[in-house]
Design brief:
There is one protein chain. By secondary structure, this protein is an alpha+beta fold. It has two domains: 50 residues, no CATH class; 62 residues, Roll (CPE0013-like fold), CATH 3.10.530.10. The chain is built from two helices and ten strands; from the N terminus they run βββαββββαβββ. It has a five-stranded mixed β-sheet. A three-stranded antiparallel β-sheet has the order 1-2-3, with helices on one face. Strands 4-7 form a two-stranded antiparallel ribbon. Strand 2 and strand 3 form a beta hairpin. The longest helix is centred in the middle third of the chain and has 12 residues. It is elongated and about 60 Å long.
């Protein structure tokens, strides 16, 4: 394939504290041509995942019933595919937890069968 038809993406790797500037060259069919700039294998893995199935930690809030505050902040314990965010938010929007909830409480184990839990990040006392 002609290199002028290849796609290039420059990323800052977040897999470790080094924050390498990684450059990935790939085809429209997501075939990797070259990865450069990474100082460890995790940078290569990160770049490949970013072009094929990017992941992020979901941070939002959930309704709290009988709580000092109407909402508690929550997040996933690890990153989930961005493609699941819309479905995740539909689930969370329908939820209501009963106060009290404590920071670190698991709201949903294995959230959307991702292997990742949804946890409370801000405690809310009962009224």
């Amino acid at each position: 394939m002609n290199s002028s038809q290849n796609l290039v993406k420059e990323l800052t790797c977040v897999r470790c504290p080094l924050g390498c500037k990684v450059r990935i060259e790939y085809t429209k069919d997501l075939e990797v041509i070259d990865v450069s700039g990474n100082r460890c294998p995790r940078g290569r893995e990160y770049a490949i995942q970013e072009i094929s199935d990017p992941h992020r930690i979901l941070v939002t809030s959930v309704k709290v019933k009988n709580g000092k505050y109407p909402l508690a902040s929550v997040k996933t314990t690890d990153s989930i595919p961005l493609r699941l965010f819309e479905e995740a938010m539909k689930v969370i929007e329908k939820m209501e937890v009963e106060a009290p909830v404590k920071r670190g409480d698991i709201i949903i184990k294995n959230f959307l069968e991702s292997g990742v839990d949804l946890i409370v990040t801000r405690s809310v006392e009962r009224l």
